[in-house]
Design goal:
174 residues; alpha+beta; 3-stranded antiparallel beta sheet
């Protein structure tokens, strides 16, 4: 399978909120973050936590409380993990976090998502997976075509332009 790589990309919709410090050197937090991604990838289904206090539901082998504390210190109260899947292979995992504390302050419970909405999100993840795989295939095809063009125009042993390349160059100049 494909090895998932950690990305430090972060989008924040609130101007007063800053991304989590992705340059953390805390090995325990990094290991827990990686394990969270791996668990969502292994499940190959959307994961929704209305309350970040329920992070223990993932049954981490690492001490998850440090990550949980860091998220809570940043005001994050809920988590949505969305695996991007193509033909049963997880290409990426998107993790969305939000501050839903204003619901609790107003006396309302944290909103839950209907199964239909979660199915829709899962379908979006599947469509993104198809698109990602298509782009990867197109890039590989472009690279193969560039190599082929080079093989057609240059001698394999000497790397000197051959007659075909000479004719192309002549046409370009005239």
């Amino acid at each position: 399978g494909t090895r998932l790589e950690r990305s430090d990309y972060c989008y924040v919709s609130h101007p007063d909120f800053h991304c989590l410090d992705n340059s953390t050197t805390d090995d325990e937090i990094l290991a827990t973050e990686l394990e969270l991604v791996e668990k969502i990838a292994a499940a190959q289904q959307i994961e929704w936590l209305a309350n970040i206090s329920d992070l223990d539901a993932f049954n981490f082998s690492h001490n998850y409380q440090r990550l949980q504390l860091q998220l809570q210190e940043h005001g994050l109260t809920s988590l949505l993990g969305l695996p991007i899947v193509f033909q049963e292979e997880v290409l990426a995992v998107l993790i969305f976090m939000a501050d839903c504390s204003h619901y609790q302050e107003e006396g309302a419970s944290v909103p839950t998502f209907s199964p239909d909405w979660l199915d829709l999100m899962q379908s979006v993840g599947t469509q993104l997976g198809t698109l990602m795989q298509r782009l990867r295939t197109e890039m590989a095809l472009k690279e193969a075509n560039e190599k082929l063009q080079h093989l057609v125009a240059y001698d394999g042993l000497t790397e000197i332009a051959n007659r075909r390349r000479f004719d192309e160059y002549l046409d370009e100049q005239w």
